[in-house]
Amino acid sequence: MTRPSGNVRLKAARVAAGFNSQQDLADALSDHAKRMGIRGLSIGARQVRRWESDNPPWPQPDCQRVLVQLLGQSLEALGFTPPWGTDGPSSRPGLRPPVRGVATALGLPGVSGRSTAAAHPASVATDFHAVTRSHRRLYWSVAPAGLHPAVEAHATLGCVLLREAAEPARNVIAEALAETYLLAGRIEFFDLREPDLAHETFLLALQAAGEADAPLLGSAVIAHMAFIPGWVGDRDAARERMTAARTYARRTHASAEFLAWLDAVEAECGTRCGDTRTALHLIGHAEDVLKDGNAHASPEWMDWFSPARLAAFKGNTQLLAGHLPQARTTLLEALQAMMPGEEKQRTVVYGDLAAVEAAFGNPREACAYAGQALDQLALTWYATGMDRVREVRRALTPHQHERCVRDLDDRLYDWSTTVSVLSR
Description:
The chain is mostly helical. Among the domains are: 8-82; 123-213; 338-424. Helix content is 67%, strand content 0%. The protein has helices at 8-16, 22-35, 45-51, 61-71, 101-106, 123-138, 144-164, 169-191, 195-211, 215-230, 235-249, 256-272, 276-292, 307-321, 324-337, 343-360, 363-379, 383-395, 403-412, 415-422. The chain starts with 7 loop residues before the first helix and ends with a helix.
């Protein structure tokens, strides 16, 4: 006799509740979410199918609430395993260790319950953090598809160590684990174009930041989460997440650079939602914050922002607002101010400069900048940079019979670039 496969606990609970199909449960969960006052939550049969698979993903916070309320059982009793593991064989379904900080605020499962601390030397936390730091640096030069599996494996190790460690090593591991998950989420969102996967990873980063009681790191995670709705035009969701990010930043000593970055993130979300006026105001405020400065240093892990990158944000917003002469000037200044190690952002600036020239009706200059972007992408792949080049090519459609545009097509659709684009 063959044993049933998949998450049989959830399937049994679904059938017992009168939902004969996965679509029936999906519809019931979406309707129940509305009655609970949860806005914008839509669950499909595909999601239920993933939950009933052999390795069901840990549901997102809102989904957790709806599942538990509708089916009347805890998540563990429904066949889900917390990403941080359990207390071991003695754990009982429905009992969850207490949580604190960020995890409590967002309804995430806690990691406070853990097995007895293993006899690890004190250097384990330092060594784990050292690898985290190395991955952070490798991100700017190593192909993201190659780095991502290593970062994920490192996070898996961190979860094991976190369950076994005692203070003060445990706090060091938790913060390094939060940074590791944040890096994995950044790769998934910016490089691999997997926003749904990135959202789940950012939630894990947020929980680890809560375990470390690191509000600034939590703020950084939530601000990254704002990009996800912001890039698809969901202004309300992006704004709500930015409000949360700013709230966490106020709970600690945030540097001027960090506060300016929050303005820049909200500005980019606003730009993608069509509100370039507010975005330019936010960027102006960020520039003033950087000029004023303060006594607080930026955290070591914040290596994705600088005045040059703020200028790049500004140039893109000016471009989309139709302020073409200003955009050209700003982007050229940003390009000149960039330091070694900012090659990924450089491809974005080249793409935006190409877009400016295309809008001015200068196809030759546009193709030249697009070619420079492709030169850099051949060395350091960045999906966001390639997106900019492809947008420029669409803008050059009226000039597609010109030699410079055909030459660009030859480069844009060579073997390696085509495979890289289509594989993503």
